[in-house]
């Protein structure tokens, strides 16, 4: 087994506990916490790998803690136990006894001898009694999600999505026309929608450090993202607006379908994320307008408006496993109100006879078909031309997209 430096192991565990505290408090998503609360950012990849394992196996690990502990542990200790038990049971290359020793020393460093003894007792028992792992949906998926999905999907579909949840997403990238994946990347072509080209590679380091990456000839993306740019019935246009553009991935997809002379405005309310949009356009050599604004602050008329709205992320749980654990009725109500507001603002920017694409990376009906039905009831001058829902799988993320067309006789807003 690979030997891990004890200081490094302690740093990873300490940072994992910080991230779990931030996520548990509802302050940040897992990705945001990994970007903002680490004391040892140079170990982000290792810490992130541990926490991705945890959120995929959270139901198992939490139940294991309850079985091992003679009393409910304090939140701080529970976070420590969650992190180290994930290492012990699910991470190869880590000696269980060594992981337990590091965790006990970390508890001691907090200055409470009794807590350190408690952690020691729990982990010694854990190392002796490794429980079997059950991959059944009721042993993996969060209860709230399981209840919803059981009423919507067949047992076979539910089992397939459960397998996807437990499977780390492969490293995929989109390549511009004419670019071939170098042999050393060991890239294999993967299917996608539309006229795009995607590859999967087991060598992400080589890809990310390549000249092709620096020049914008490739873009790190999941094949499911092509759905919004590939719906049947989409027509060539001259003026495009992306109202939730950052970091620019779907704008780049649209740019590959644009004809010469087409303009594109990439808008987003986050100035920080728009810096990444500018960088992605620069790498690709695109001179598109990038503006920071709320959807309702935008003006003008466009032949095509894309509203790829914030969502619950239940379709991208392979890449964001914490999303399923943050999902709930209150959050769903909040996000659907925001989506309705953005969609309404986007519609105001569609020229008569123009097109509106609404898309999410959710698989919840309230965010997708029901949102589209509500929009059509409130905007009789729009007609649905096409819509599609992709379910997550081990090959790609889930996604929803709907193409709406405004009547040519509509009065400008």
What can you tell me about this protein's structure?
- There is one protein chain.
- The protein has helices at residues 6-24, 30-36, 44-56, 58-68, 75-90, 96-109, 113-128, 143-150, 155-166, 204-208, 211-214, 249-257, 271-284, 322-326, 329-347, 369-378, and strands spanning 172-175, 188-190, 197-200, 218-220, 239-242, 263-268, 289-292, 302-308, 350-360, 382-390, 399-406.
- The chain is 44% helix and 15% strand.
- It is built from 16 helices and eleven strands.
- The chain is of the alpha/beta class.
- The model has no long low-confidence stretch (mean pLDDT 94).
- Strands 7-6-5-8-9-11-10 form a seven-stranded mixed sheet, with helices on both faces. The chain has a four-stranded antiparallel sheet with strand order 2-3-1-4, with no helix packed on it.
- The chain is globular.
Q: What tags apply to this protein structure?
A:
four-stranded antiparallel sheet, 413 residues, 16 helices, alpha/beta, 15% strand
Task: Give me the secondary-structure category.
Answer: alpha/beta
Distance between the termini: 65 Å
Amount of helix: 40-55%
Radius of gyration: 23 Å
Strand order across the largest sheet: 7-6-5-8-9-11-10
Largest sheet: 7 strands, mixed
Oligomer: single chain
Number of helices: 16
The dominant shape is globular
- Beta percentage is 15-25%
Would you list the SSEs in sequence order as H and E? HHHHHHHHHEEEHHEEHEHEEHHEHEE
Ranges with pLDDT <50 over ≥5 residues? none
Number of strands: 11
What do the pLDDT scores average to?
94
